[in-house]
Amino acid sequence: MENELKRYFERWELNGAQIAVSRGDSLLYAKGFGWADKEAGQEMQPSNIMRLASVSKLLTAVGIMKLVDDKKIKLSEHVFGAKGILNDTAFTNVIKDPRYFDITVEQLLRHKAGFTTGAGDPMFSTRYIMMQNRLTEAPDNKTLMKILLKRRLGFTPGTAKRYSNVGYTLLSMIIEKKTRMSYEQFMTDSIFRPAGCFDFHIAGNYPKDRRSNEVKYYMHKGSEPVLEYNNSGRMVEKCYGENDIPRLQGAGAWCGSAAELSRFVAAIDLVPGAKDILSKGAIEFMTREMPDYDFSIGWNFTPANGPWIRTGSLSGTSAIILRYPDTECWILITNTSTWKGHGFSKDTMRLFEKLRKEYSSKFPKRNLFLAE
Question: What structural domains does the chain harbor?
Fold first, then answer.
């Protein structure tokens, strides 16, 4: 299997990658391939951490569902307005489109709140937003939302779906409002630690921000430098300064390892063994198959007769989780941008299917979680 994986990573010109395979609540396989930092001669280890990109949305959704379980929030609650969760007058007073007052928590989770990216994704358009609004520094999320709420929604909430990073950034802000804690602290204390995960962190923007066990990120061949996100005028490598990663919060800012992601999934899967951190009802609600290809909660899609799917990509990284009906979970994270966009995720899904047929029955019966 490892030779096939090495050939696959070479074909996609990846500097480094991690694979983790679990079944039920047992970790069967975890391995690093290639380089965590090629220039420093550091090989990829299972304990290295990498940016998880939009896989972060699964983590955030679990945070929201924990608040639902604890009766601190309702999915039907409105987000904006005098009786909404984010009822700050700084938001309410700038809203001109009354449809904002109809947005609910569940609509944010399912990408049905009305946010679109026709003018570009606001979470990745910091330079342009700064120029349009004559800002001298990159806006924090509260400032950004005050700007965005002046715009009209792209559609009436609940009537359509458009993938939205803004929606999951708002969910991060909702967590902070409901818990009176920072988003990162709540997730660490109330989600990750109970799940047995101790090495998830909000990622930084630059090499100087790397954690001691965090990888170096790489762009694909032919990638050109770009202007830094904060309008400094500096040219930077895309994976180190094109976007403000920490500001993504629950939409795409977490970093972690494939093995820890496996442990996290084991805590939200209803499989006997490791204790789940959510109620049975919450997990079933998150993973209910949706009609018309509507998004599941946190996951991209959760078909009844296929794998639950969660993908993510940023400049310098790609991540994918496939959790199958037979309880097997396959996870891949890379530290290198690919040259074919979403084609990499689709190709990886095909690879996982092939490897499952060839090797699932050959994994030894063990639990590497217990060996940590």
Answer: 2-55+196-371 (3.40.710.10), 63-184 (3.40.710.10)
